[in-house]
Structure formats: C-alpha cells, structure tokens
Task: inverse folding
C-alpha cells in the first residue's frame, strides 16, 4: 500500500519519512521523493504568488479607477494628485461603510442625509480640481445617475453635446466655464455667498426639505427653477421614473405648460418632495391653485415659494395682481404653510431697463453697462436713469412694498443675476428671448439664495408670521 508512493504522488514522501523514523533521513535517503518535494512546493508557492498577484492587480485597478474618479469627474486626473490620493482612502472607507449599512440606495436614518456627498474644499474648486455640485459636479465619491441614460440624467449632466432641444436649454461649455470663473473671482473678492455656493452639497439643502413638500408656484421662470432643483437633487430621486403630476395625470409632462396647475413632482427619500405648480399670474393662483391646496395635500409644514412677474408688463397689471395675492394670503394665513417670495428675474432686452417691449428694437440681449456689483453684492450706478434697475427693477420694488407687512421671507436674486446677460441662450431655440436662461446660470444662484433664506428662518417662522398678523379678535 505504501509503495504507491513510487508512482510519484506527494503523500507517500511524508509517510515514508515517518516509517524510516526521521523526516530528515528519509529525505536524504530516498532520492525520488526528495526531488519531488521542492518542485511541488515551488509549484504551490508559484500558485500562491500568482493568486496573490491577481488579487493585488485587481485591487490596484479598483483603487486606481476610484482615484481617477475622485480626482474629478470631467476627466482631469493629471493636475491634482493630492486630490486623487485623498480620494482613494476616502473612497475605501466610504465603500466599507456603505456596504456595512446595507444595499439600499439611501440611508434611511432620519436626521442623517440619505446619501453621502464628499464636500469639496474651496481650494479644490478654485484650482479647478473639482466641479462644484451646484454647477453640475457629480456626486463623489459615488454617483448613481452618472451612467444612467434617462433623459433627466442626461439633461442634468449639463453636457451641451447631449442637449436634445425639448428639455433644454443647456449652456454651451464656454459659458459654463465663464460662470465658474466669475464665481471664483467673486469668491476671491469676498462677495458674500460665493465660497458657500462653490462648496455647497445637496446634503446641505436636504434637511430643510425632510418630511415636507417644497411647492414652487409660478411661471416658466419657476419651471426652470424646478429643473435646477431637480438637477441639484438628481441623486435623490429616481431618474428612470417619469416625475409625476401633482394631481391629474396628463399626457406630456415635459412640454412647457402655460396653464395653471400643470406641473410635476419628484419624490425624495424621507417624505421629502419637490413639486412645481404652474401659475403665471395671481389671478390664476387664486382661481385655480390656492383652491386646489386641499386636494393637492398641501400641509402646514410645507413650504411654498411663489413668484409672478413676467406676465405683467404694466404697473397697473402688476399692482392689481399683487394686491389680490396679498389679500388672499393675509386672510388665509392660518391655513397656509410657510410662504416665501422669490424676486422677479432680470431681463436683458435691448432697452434701458432691460424690460421687454414690443416691437423689439433688436434681437440681441444686452448687458447693463453702467451698473456694477460691489464686493458686498450691492449694485451701483452713476447714471440716475438706472436707479430703478439698481434698486431691483420696478416689479421687485412694487412687490417688496406689498410683501413687507406680510412678513413674507424674500429670496433675493436680482443683484447676483444682473450681470448674466449672455446666458439667455437657446430657450426653445428662439432668438430674442432675453428672459429665460440656460443651465447652469442664474437659476443655480437662486437655488443657493433660496437655501440661505430658508435656513435662516426660525423653526416657527410660519407661526410667528401668524402671530404678528393675527388681528385682535380673530382667534
Ligand atoms: C394680472 O395680470 C394679468 C396680465 O398678465 C392681467 O390681465 C390681469 O388683469 C391682472 N389682474 C389684476 C387683478 O389686475
Ligand atoms: C442689491 O443692491 C441694492 C443697491 O445697492 C442694495 O440696496 C441691496 O441691499 C442689494 N441686495 C442684496 C440682497 O444684497
């Protein structure tokens, strides 16, 4: 039985050695097995090394790809090696953390942000190692929607070459670059908010949306703002599902509805939601949208961000609409959630005030040459004719006067978007539209302004406005 070893198998070499009384002796005396042994060991060793080599190779390539990824999603891995190295370690830690937490796409822990966003430093942005999240930088270190082919994922990548018209407009690359340069310059000059904008993450905004719906109520400008919101929060909702209408199903949710109540919602984790309610005028809001609040399921803890402006081209019209709106809010304050107001946006038609006139003088949009933004984000001009522009435009001046005693928080956007005269690009591919803008541009600055305004409000902002306005005897 033991002689089977002579057939060259490894087993007998030990058994034979044992039978001789000593391993060493056995190895010396029997030439064949002793020859065999090193070869077998070598083979085994080689095999081990090969496996270890393969594992190492795989590991290295994973690390490498992640470090490339962490170094910048727009493929500039070269210039910022420190970013890459930090990215590798971080990626690994986060990987492990996420795998421990489970396979769900979101962290359901209430109070925590459902997703992990690595905050970029201002220096990384300034040195062009990172694209700010607000300007379309993809989530780091992991991104769920980056490889999605869904139309919204496409749009939100703000890749001009993918722009397919109906869901635009996306700013061309050079304009996007110009915007980033301007924002960095502004940050360097110490203009308030710019460093914050460049390093803001969607996890800053999320806690303010948790458990409530943010209703965006207004015209096509608000609709564009909705798109900005959708893109900033793109990792938080299911881009492969079509956003749902807030009430009635309608067939084509993406075309530009100019009829009240058209709009759509995106569902975020932890009962957060963002909805657009289309309404161009206060008349439409009062006739259609406010009465539908119960049916829409508007709750007291929600937030409604409102604006109407662009559809009113005379003082009378705007004043009439504002009065109607004010009165409604005043008398219904107890049943309304927190109402916030967004500035009327800046237009850049070829007129002194930038306002639209018919017939247009030219088809081009023009800058306000004699108005400048100081380092405190305040506007100035030497030209007395531009005073109204410096003070926020005629619509905002009228609105501020009307809203001040309602204590409605105002999201100021005018000053910071006044300089963006050349971002009115390609809206519906129409020339001569100096109202709407491409993405990313002013809408993203508004988003930050909205966040800042909402964040600064005390938790009982709604209640305190009520107390302030409650007339004696109305309880
Ligand atoms: C509101 O503005 C529209 C123009 O968009 C106008 O037709 C309407 O009369 C205005 N409403 C009031 C109450 O003034
Ligand atoms: C915008 O500029 C005007 C004029 O300088 C200033 O009064 C106003 O406070 C500025 N608004 C903001 C939000 O900084």
Result:
């Amino acid at each position: 039985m033991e002689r089977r070893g002579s057939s060259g198998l490894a087993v007998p070499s030990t058994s034979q050695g044992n039978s001789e009384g000593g391993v060493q002796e056995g190895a010396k005396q029997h030439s064949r097995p002793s020859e065999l042994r090193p070869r077998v060991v070598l083979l085994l060793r080689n095999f081990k090394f090969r496996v270890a080599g393969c594992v190492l190779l795989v590991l290295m390539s994973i690390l490498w790809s992640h470090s490339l990824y962490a170094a910048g999603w727009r493929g500039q891995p070269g210039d910022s090696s420190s970013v890459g190295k930090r990215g590798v370690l971080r990626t690994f830690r986060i990987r492990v953390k996420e795998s421990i937490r489970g396979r769900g796409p979101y962290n359901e822990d209430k109070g925590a942000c459902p997703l992990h966003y690595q905050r970029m430093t201002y220096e990384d942005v300034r040195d062009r190692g990172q694209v700010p999240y607000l300007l379309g930088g993809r989530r780091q270190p992991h991104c769920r929607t980056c490889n999605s082919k869904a139309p919204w994922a496409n749009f939100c990548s703000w890749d001009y070459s993918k722009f397919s018209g109906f869901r635009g407009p996306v700013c061309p690359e050079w304009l996007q670059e110009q915007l980033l340069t301007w924002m960095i310059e502004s940050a360097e000059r110490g203009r308030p908010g710019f460093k914050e904008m460049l390093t803001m993450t969607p996890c800053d905004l999320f806690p303010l949306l948790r458990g409530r719906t943010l209703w965006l109520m207004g015209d096509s400008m608000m609709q564009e703002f909705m798109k900005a919101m959708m893109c900033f929060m793109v990792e938080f909702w299911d881009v492969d599902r079509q956003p749902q209408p807030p009430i009635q199903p309608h067939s084509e949710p993406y075309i530009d509805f100019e009829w009240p109540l058209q709009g759509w919602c995106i569902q975020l984790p932890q009962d957060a939601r963002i909805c657009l309610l289309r309404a161009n005028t206060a008349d439409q809001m009062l006739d259609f949208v406010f009465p539908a609040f119960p049916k829409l399921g508007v709750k007291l803890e929600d937030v409604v961000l409102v604006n109407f402006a662009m559809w009113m081209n005379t003082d009378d019209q705007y004043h009439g609409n504002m009065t109607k709106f004010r009165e409604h809010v005043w008398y219904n304050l107890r049943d309304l959630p927190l109402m916030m107001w967004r500035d009327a946006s800046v237009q850049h038609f070829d007129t002194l005030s930038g306002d639209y006139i018919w017939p247009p003088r030219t088809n081009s949009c023009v800058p306000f040459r004699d108005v400048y933004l100081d380092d405190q984000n305040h506007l100035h001009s030497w030209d007395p004719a531009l005073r109204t522009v410096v003070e926020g435009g005629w619509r905002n001046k009228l609105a501020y006067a009307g809203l001040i005693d309602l204590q409605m928080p105002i999201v100021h956007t005018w000053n910071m978007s006044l300089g963006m005269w050349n971002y009115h690009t390609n809206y519906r591919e129409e020339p001569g539209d100096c109202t709407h803008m491409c993405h990313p541009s002013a809408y993203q600055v508004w988003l930050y302004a909205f966040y800042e305004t909402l964040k600064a409000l005390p938790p009982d902002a709604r209640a305190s406005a009520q107390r302030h306005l409650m007339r004696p005897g109305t309880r």
The CA atoms of residues 290 and 405 lie 21 Å apart. The radius of gyration is 31 Å.
